[in-house]
Design brief:
The chain is of the alpha/beta class. About 30% of the residues lie in helices and about 25% in strands. Strand 5 and strand 6 form a beta hairpin. Helix 1 packs parallel to helix 9 and helix 3 packs antiparallel against helix 4.
Length: about 450
């Protein structure tokens, strides 16, 4: 058996990359394992490729909004060319990542990893021994457990399709459903969303989501809320999603493609965690506050696999820094998820950071709410954009920002100003006193806090 590794990393996404770089700086011997191409979800199957496709959507949307306002001619999305543009970014990543591992002196393995003992990982017939093991496997779609499950495509599949189907149904109503429905509808598809909950985007403030909903209507997206998909069937070349309303009404949606958009869970099923003495509860790793396994001190987790913070790329990076501090120096570091912004890249985008109004009430905080739908503000009017609004929660006693909820042009960028303020304890007055470049979306922040 070869000399033990100081660290074995399972997964090759953001958390893995940050952890590997940090421990290699200290001379640790490292192995990395992934059964998929090196690079991870965000770079290959998530945030980055999605945003590449959204770039085409934004261009078409901007041109259509400015029709009869100085712009002539109709633009359309060429789906195969847009997918090729996306691949110009994603295709080189696995090779670049493998080259980076080689440059760092990291041993890279392709294949499914599984524990064979608390300190041993088997991959492709090789048994690796590690002083420390980092689980950074990301997340996978939550099993729907309905007949016809095998007919449902994943978000990964959607990001790779060469030809956009004419009719698309999405099961679920969160980020994926909202983002993909906007993109597919603007690309010419007929789109239907089937959401079990009472509204779309339950992760975001209800008022702000309400201001966004007209954009779904304008795109011709059919939204069914409060319905449960219970089976999918195929007839010739057509798929049918069968769903039921709370009152028992039956809904049948015919589609050429059905996409799973009903949430994701930590990807742990193939790891044989029992053999590694890694405790699990209800499908999630049991971890200390320092992201260490409660049952096997060699094992840590980060990012979506840990399930400790919001399932976002910056959280994966943050988790990796916490984990490596604890492994390298025996520190008692713990993650700090204050002020982590979240965005759904619809067009226009919706964004949030901090507490919702309901959460702030539940904590019995004393706060004021500044909220308005403001499509007549210059930021929206210059773009002929009908969707623009904000809700900001400010604590009465301290003047600190408890939460911010935005929708409209540049919401995905402006939310970072609120995140910066929350993370660093800046008051609403401090933001009001800041002289932002004008006229920009950022310069609206002061007016949101009056």
């Amino acid at each position: 058996m070869s000399e033990p590794y100081d660290l074995i990393v399972i997964g090759s996404g953001t958390a893995a990359q940050v952890a590997i770089a940090r421990v290699r700086e200290r001379g640790w011997r490292v192995a990395v394992i992934d059964h998929r191409p090196f690079g991870g979800t965000c770079a290959l199957r998530g945030c980055d490729p999605k945003k590449m496709l959204v770039s085409g959507e934004e261009a078409v949307d901007a041109a259509r909004r400015m029709q009869s306002h100085g712009i002539e001619g109709e633009l359309r999305i060429d789906w195969p060319a847009l997918i090729a543009f996306k691949r110009s970014f994603t295709d080189p990543i696995p090779a670049k990542q493998a080259e980076r591992y080689a440059d760092l002196g990291v041993d890279a393995y392709h294949g499914l990893a599984r524990f064979t003992a608390p300190d041993k990982i088997e991959v492709e017939g090789c048994e690796l021994v590690g002083r420390h093991i980092l689980i950074a496997t990301g997340a996978s779609p939550v099993p729907l457990g309905i007949p016809g499950d095998e007919l449902i495509s994943t978000s990964d599949d959607f990001l790779e399709i060469e030809s956009l189907p004419r009719r698309i149904a999405l099961i679920g109503g969160g980020y994926i459903a909202a983002e993909f429905s906007h993109l597919a509808a603007r690309s010419g598809a007929q789109v239907t969303i089937l959401q079990r909950g009472a509204r779309l985007l339950p992760q975001f403030d209800g008022n702000v989501v309400g201001w966004l909903m007209p954009s779904f209507n304008a795109l011709g997206i059919t939204v069914h809320t409060g319905v449960t998909a219970n089976r999918v069937t195929r007839t010739k070349e057509e798929l049918t999603v069968h769903a039921t309303s709370p009152k028992g009404a039956q809904i049948a949606v015919i589609a050429d493609l059905v996409i799973h958009a009903a949430g994701r869970v930590p990807e742990l099923a193939t790891l044989d965690l029992e053999a590694g003495d890694v405790a699990v509860h209800q499908g999630r790793l049991k971890l200390t506050q320092g992201l260490q396994s409660v049952s096997n001190s060699r094992v840590y987790a980060a990012g979506d696999a840990a399930g400790s913070g919001p399932p976002l790329t910056p959280v994966s990076s943050h988790d990796a820094k916490i984990v490596t501090a604890n492994m390298l120096d025996g520190a008692d570091a713990r993650p700090d998820y204050r002020g982590v912004p979240s965005v759904a890249f619809t067009v226009p985008p919706i964004a949030a950071v901090g507490l919702s109004e309901a959460d702030a009430h539940a904590k019995r905080l004393r706060f004021r709410v500044n909220a308005a739908s403001v499509p007549k503000w210059f930021t929206a009017q210059r773009l002929n954009e009908a969707v623009y609004g904000y809700k900001v929660l400010i604590e009465e006693d301290t003047d600190v920002i408890l939460g911010a909820h935005l929708v409209g042009p540049s919401a995905d960028e402006v939310i970072n100003l609120f995140a910066l303020a929350m993370r660093n304890g800046l008051t609403a007055q401090a933001l009001r006193d800041t002289m932002f470049a004008y006229p920009t979306a950022a310069s609206d922040v002061g007016y949101m806090l009056v």
